[in-house]
Amino acid sequence: MTENTTATDVLERPDEQQQRHEIRRLTVRGLLLQGGFNYERFQNLGFWWMMRPTLDRLYPDPVERAAAYQRHMVYFNTNPWVVGPIAGVTASMEEQRAKGATDLNDEAINSVKVGLMAPLAGIGDSLIFGTIRPILAAVCAGLAIDGNIAGPIIFFLALLAIQVLMRVGGTATGYRTGMQFFEKLSPAQIDQIKRGATIVGLAVTGALVATLLNVTTPWSYTSGEQTIALQDQLDLVLPALLPLIATMIVYALIRRRVSPVWVLLGTLVVGLVLGYFGILG
Amino acid sequence: MTLWQAFLIALVVALAYLARRILGDPQLERPIILGPVVGLIAGDLETGLIVGGTLELIFIGAATFGGTAPPNVAIGAAVGTALSISAGQGAEAALVAAVPAAVLGTFCELFAKTVCSFLVHRADAAAAQARGRTILGIIWIGNAIHFLAYFVPTFLVLQFGANALEGVLNALSDDVQNALNTSAALLPAVGFGILLSVLYNKALFPVFFAGFALAAFTDFTVIGVAILATALVVVILRNRTPQAPSSPQSSALI
Predict the structure, then answer these.
(1) Which residues of chain A lie closer than 8 angstroms to B194, CB-CB?
(2) Which residue spans traverse the membrane (chain B) (predicted)?
């Protein structure tokens, strides 16, 4: 026991230059996270790939190295853009462990990984795929449809810039704070960020439905002498009512776990049928 | 569509997908990117841009969340763009090819991810002996499987699907063309529905209707709504005292 305590006392972090080098390496290697993606353990091979140079440096001994390799062969899955903090925290924990912090056993390291991957994936998915990308896509697709090459270019560059910022900032923060990451960014704060992103995402989705979905009906009926277009009547009640209904039907189906692939095919067919008979136009 | 064009387009699609695997998911396989690139190869950048933009809107909400299998937008976009250009048709015709191709393409990714599951056990054995090079080799085999799972079907469809599609398109009457326009208008609802289910949060859901009403009744654009919502969120978060930190598990559920 005393031996362990002394070992923990003399723990030293690498000097500043080594730290910067490690952060840079982890940031770049974070790009590899989804390599060898599989349905059994998702990003586990990619996570090992990302960590390999760090593990090799810390564990020259074959037995310890094998243990480290196996430690990171377990299930892992998060949003690839937010892996930075997890890579940083994990590398920092492995450094402590390699220097004798025996309380950092396999379970301790894995539980921190798991504790970070789910909330961060929540932020990443709602912020990137739920908010940022749809906004950019809506604007840039409009440009592209007008034949403007700036559409795809802006889309690509803006997403790239956001991704680079998230990766660089995330890895550095994770590595430097180490296990204190949760003190810097508590689960409650992570949850708040996710809620914030969800609010913006929901509002934007509502706006997308109202502006980009051009579902109308060409139906009209005769009332006395007048021919009244049904669409005009609908617009008086609630503009974009039909787009809203269409979206809510799809949403209800997906919430009931109907595969998106079937919903897509079904929508294509329903659109063809309703369009052919002039119910929608 | 010449052999070389089909080959190049399949290569571009498979590389764009590979970028998701080993280059940090830069969203290169989105229709808005693939459309113009495929258009350039097929000899019509303008149509590629328009088809890419149109398909981007249709698939706006489609993404891989937590290992689900969404429609394959990359193969759908590439096949739709390439075949509509080679048939000399517009964006609606691209849909005829894009949607079935995206649906069938779903199985390509499923296939690759399933096959790679067998590799994991080999990696386990190598890890137990600290054989890093072996694991790396296994990962590259996995990456090659992912690459081929996109490359081969795309190439085959482009090579052999062009004539069939051209026949179908030429046989279409005006009524069917109108029906296609309707389908094209309705399809983005799928993306929005997927988006909503991703963002699902019972307590916050009314915000969706707020955003909808703002854009439906006024001239607010999507960006306008986004700015307004972001400003409100920042104000709310700043004025709220953070709650006592709960356990990570409980926060993951929200």
Answers:
(1) 250, 254, 260
(2) 6-23, 138-160, 180-200, 207-237
ipTM: 0.88
Residue-level pLDDT at B250 = 41
Which residue from B25, B127, B251 is facing A190, i.e. has the nearest CB?
Answer: B251
Q: Write down the domain spans for chain B.
A: 3-199, 201-241
The pLDDT of residue A157 is 98
SS3 A219: coil
Structure tokens at A65: 């190295």
**What is the largest distance, in Å, between two alpha-carbon atoms of chain B?**
67
DSSP A42: B
Contacts of B80 (CB under 8 A, 6+ apart): B31, B51, B55, B94, B95, B96, B97, B98, B99, B101
> Alpha-carbon torsion B228, B229, B235, B238, what sign?
negative
What is the per-residue pLDDT for B240?
Answer: 75
Token readout for A42 is: 């998702």
Confidence at residue A221, expressed as pLDDT on a 0 to 100 scale: 85
Q: What are phi and psi of B56, to 5 degrees?
A: -60, -40
Tokens of A230: 């049904």
Interchain proximity A45–B27, CB inside 8 Å = no
